[in-house]
Design goal:
about 300 residues, alpha/beta, Rossmann fold, Alpha-Beta Plaits, four-stranded antiparallel beta sheet, 11 helices, about 30% strand, binds adenosine-5'-triphosphate
Length: about 300
């Protein structure tokens, strides 16, 4: 085992002419981590991945995988990674099995039992020509080729597009297993709920810039919540409104509903110090709402 980060980028920057697709990305993903790389279309996710993999050269900065500089050691690096590109090229006349054989030969062999297990889990039909498969079923072949050599680092560009919800769940289980074995997953996505389910940490990219880097737990803790309190006695709205982060307070005698985006213990201490709390219900914001909050803050800052 190595103590190097699985992936590291330092000042990674890519311009296409006047388009600043990626600006000064500094990122470290540790071994065994599932890292979610989130951003809307055109944010720079594919550019980041392709630059990290040395498919395109950075305008500035460097990237390394398992401590190896990606510009200098791209061949060696390929032996340690699995990659699902956004648009995996396959020969339409080859069956799924032939396609996997082709990829296996490039890498000097594969454990076919494991391939069969992956195919079964994803319900992939490897006997059909890939050109005859739906995009979701073709994607399964792409996933199997990335997982089948049990790579130390898996890099995937929007891999679950086209998979139905059942298969997405299986795929998420597969990613968690990779992480449990100490291997690393770098998952680019705009499916926030998926990232929320599997990732330990999330980077949010917008217009080529990393605007947030958080653990999923912290991101949630920061998120807006809708909270309902039940008290023993009638209460005064001003007590709640005085707490920073509280919004939209509705008081119905002994019942209070409010929105809150601060630390929950701050609110609880203030409220419980004044009134006798009988019950509390909170509805957690999902990443979608948190994501929008980040974008709103960015917009306001510009
Ligand atoms: P998507 O989810 O749509 O794939 P993305 O986050 O992967 O989006 P990128 O494909 O990295 O985004 O694109 C980042 C920016 O760089 C966009 O503005 C895009 O138009 C631009 N871009 C990407 N590739 C090129 C290229 N070869 N030439 C010029 N501009 C490009």
């Amino acid at each position: 085992m190595t103590s190097d980060p699985a992936i590291r980028t330092t000042g990674l920057t890519k311009h296409y002419g006047h388009v600043e697709a990626l600006i000064d990305l500094n990122l470290e993903v540790g071994p065994g981590e599932v890292f979610g790389f989130l951003g809307p279309n055109g944010a720079g996710k594919t550019t980041t991945i392709r630059t990290i993999l040395d498919e395109i050269r950075p305008t500035a900065g460097t990237a390394s995988i398992l401590g190896m500089d990606t510009g200098k050691h791209s061949v060696e690096i390929r032996r340690h990674i699995g990659y699902v590109p956004g648009d995996l090229a396959m020969y339409p006349n080859l069956t799924g099995k032939d396609t996997l054989t082709y990829f296996a030969n490039l890498r000097g062999g594969v454990d076919w039992e494991y391939v069969a297990e992956l195919a079964e889990r994803l319900d992939a039909d490897l006997s059909k020509k890939v050109g005859d498969l739906s995009s979701g079923n073709r994607q399964k072949v792409g996933l199997i080729q990335a997982f089948m050599n049990r790579p130390e680092v898996l890099i995937m560009d929007e891999p679950s597009s086209g998979l139905d919800p059942l298969m997405q769940r299986e795929f998420q289980a597969m990613m968690r297993e990779v992480s449990a074995e100490g291997r690393t997953v770098f998952l680019s996505s705009h499916t926030l709920s998926e990232v929320q389910r599997v990732a330990d940490r999330v980077g949010i990219i917008r217009s080529g810039r990393l605007i947030a880097l958080e653990t999923v737990a912290d991101l949630r803790a920061k998120g807006m919540r809708r909270i309902e309190f039940q008290f023993a006695e009638p209460v005064d709205a001003s007590v709640f409104e005085s707490v920073p982060g509280v919004r939209d307070v509705d008081v119905l005698r002994r019942r209070v509903m409010l929105s809150y985006d601060g630390k929950i213990d701050v609110l609880l201490t203030t409220v419980a110090g004044r009134y006798d709390v009988i019950d509390i219900t909170t509805h957690e914001a999902d990443l979608e709402e948190i994501f929008l909050t980040y974008y709103r803050d960015e917009e306001e800052a510009v």
